[in-house]
Specification:
- This protein is globular.
- Helices cover 73% and strands 2% of the residues.
- A hairpin with a 2-residue loop joins strand 1 and strand 2 (250-252).
- By secondary structure, the protein is mainly alpha-helical.
- The chain has helices at 3-22, 24-54, 58-77, 79-91, 94-110, 114-138, 160-176, 183-206, 212-235; strands at residues 245-247, 250-252.
- The longest helix is centred in the first third of the chain and has 31 residues, at 24-54.
- The termini are far apart.
């Protein structure tokens, strides 16, 4: 092959690569791969943690009991802390978060983002259903304390509060980050998501109604559900009609994309 022909091929390769990288269909495939991989990678530590809980692994049990006893001792001496944690855990309980998610779905539907609204609904329903089912399967009892500052019914692993907080935080980020143009807005969204997730989980351990591993299990399960539903909705694209435009996780038709404001 001539030198000029070789140069022509070499010049064409980067251009072709950039074309594939920027093509929406290839980008969708990349998103699907990343989301599916993330779901698998998060499910592995969750499954391992659930297995250790089922087998009452001694090191994990010691860590759980040590943290619970330390936070319980602090709670007994600081009633204001207990009140703060109780208020937080009530405000960010599963039912209030689901009510807010329902309002979000209605808002998205009114703005024409039907696929995104369906993703939010699916994510909250699937995650909310898996939590109670896994609690029954694992059957772990809640912490037993001589002078409890709070009480909760049912089994312990995974924490429903932590699970739903992780789901709500993921929904918050994936729905609103595409519209957060300024860096300050994006930082505010990340901070809000982190506070909802971390403080809600902390409140359950601080009140003595969950072990630390229950909360971590809830967080991991929530992340896995978000990654899995994101992967599923990446696959589900309209095969015909106008080319979809990315709007958060799902895609909406060009003529039905939510307007700003």
């Amino acid at each position: 092959m001539s030198t000029s022909g070789t140069r022509t091929l070499e010049a064409a390769r980067p251009s072709s690569w950039r074309h594939r990288r920027l093509d929406p269909d290839h980008a969708r495939g990349l998103r699907l791969t990343l989301a599916a991989t993330a779901a698998f990678l998060v499910l592995v530590p969750f499954s391992l943690l659930a297995l250790l809980v089922l087998r009452a692994w001694a090191p994990l049990r010691r860590v759980d009991e040590t943290v619970t006893e330390a936070l319980h001792a602090y709670a007994l001496d600081h009633r204001a802390w207990v009140t703060l944690m109780q208020v937080w855990t009530d405000v960010f309980a599963p039912m209030p978060l689901r009510a807010v998610a329902l309002l979000l779905v209605i808002w998205l539907l009114r703005r024409g983002a039907r696929r995104l609204a369906l993703w939010v609904t699916t994510t909250m329903v699937v995650g909310g259903s898996l939590g109670p089912l896994l609690k029954l399967l694992v059957g772990r009892d809640r912490p037993e304390l001589l002078d409890p500052v709070a009480r909760a019914a049912g089994y312990s692993f995974p924490s429903g509060h932590a699970l739903n907080a992780a789901l709500a935080a993921g929904v918050l980020l994936l729905v609103f980050l595409p519209y957060a143009g300024r860096s300050a807005s994006r930082v505010a969204l990340w901070v809000a998501a982190a506070l909802i997730t971390v403080v809600t989980g902390l409140s359950r351990v601080a009140l003595g109604v969950h072990f630390t591993s229950d909360v971590v299990g809830g967080w991991l399960l929530g992340l896995a559900v978000i990654a899995a539903t994101t992967a599923a909705f990446t696959i589900w694209r309209a095969p015909t009609g106008p080319r979809p435009v990315d709007d958060g996780v799902a895609a909406v038709d060009v003529d039905k994309r939510p307007s700003g404001g």
